[in-house]
Design goal:
Strand order of the largest sheet: 8-1-2-10-9
Distance between the termini: 39 Å
Largest sheet: 5 strands, antiparallel
Number of strands: 10
Number of domains: 2
Strand content: 15-25%
Length: 284
């Protein structure tokens, strides 16, 4: 017997097919389960790793977006919920990548947890043109630029990077952090995924290329069997946005079916999705 399963986020909706009498096809239900995959790397992001990162970012944005919708906002305000930070070294890198990630980045994250009550974050590591490692971090809490810069420069100071910066520039307050503006981005999940998984053919990074908070590792997409209510919206999307429907033997992706369309054509399913992700928001 074929089962039609439905998954939803703010960036796309998916129907995937499983068969009750076929174990290998039933296991396809875990295709988008980010909790069952390991965070391993060989210096560059593989397609599999990129897909894991994409799923984590997509769920992160979906939880924040559904909380906005629950409280009368709209998805155009999503950028207000996300802080996008870049950390750079202020002098030539003298420690290996693993050391910097373990003793500098991890210390920075622990400070955010302790002093700013940060519970949710995603980070990635990449090389700059000058060969130094640097980090991108997204979180869901506001932190002033001054505090971010102070925390990171204090950590750099412990390992000699501020001293070497001062010898070259004559002061001890390098602009080592950046806050990215997201207000003009059309699709934040797509933009952040591209930023976190891009490959600019620079040197390979040693150690993990990315990581996230434990609460994101345990989150799964909203999922249910396709019912009459859901089918109404999917039928509408198939007819209206056929060019943005991607089909295979195992799934159909409705890339441009947004939650406002779902609210109009499948109000019961829309309410279920909003409530499901809004409940998850409480853990973030």
């Amino acid at each position: 017997m074929q089962l039609n399963n439905y998954q939803a986020s703010i960036s796309r909706q998916l129907v995937y097919f499983t068969f009750a009498d076929d174990l290998s096809l039933r296991e396809f239900t875990n295709y988008h389960d980010i909790t069952k995959e390991k965070n391993t790397t060989k210096g560059k992001m593989s397609k599999k790793t990129s897909k894991r990162v994409k799923n984590v970012i997509d769920i992160f944005c979906t939880v924040l977006g559904c909380n906005l919708l629950k409280n009368g906002g709209n998805l155009k305000e999503l950028h207000k919920k996300i802080k996008f930070i870049t950390l750079t070294l202020s002098a030539k890198q003298t420690h290996d990548d693993k050391f910097i990630r373990r003793y500098m980045l991890e210390q920075f994250i622990q400070i955010l947890k302790r002093k700013e009550n940060i519970k949710t974050y995603i980070y990635c590591s990449e090389a700059q043109k000058n060969g130094n490692i640097h980090f991108h971090i997204i979180t869901n809490k506001y932190i002033s630029h001054q505090k971010i810069r102070k925390y990171w420069n204090n950590i750099q100071d412990q390992y000699g990077y501020i001293d070497r910066f001062e010898k070259k520039h004559g002061h001890r307050d390098p602009n080592s952090t950046d806050i990215h503006k997201l207000n003009k981005i059309h699709s934040l999940p797509a933009y952040l995924t591209k930023y976190f998984t891009k490959d600019e053919h620079r040197r390979e990074i040693r150690g993990h290329l990315w990581g996230c908070s434990n609460n994101l590792k345990n989150i799964q997409y909203f999922s249910k069997l396709v019912d009459y209510d859901t089918s109404n919206s999917l039928d509408f999307a198939y007819e209206k946005e056929h060019r943005n429907v991607y089909e295979s033997d195992f799934f159909i992706i409705f890339a441009n079916l947004n939650l406002s369309d779902l609210k109009q054509h499948s109000p019961e399913t829309y309410s279920e999705i909003i409530e499901y992700y809004n409940d998850l928001y409480n853990g973030m």
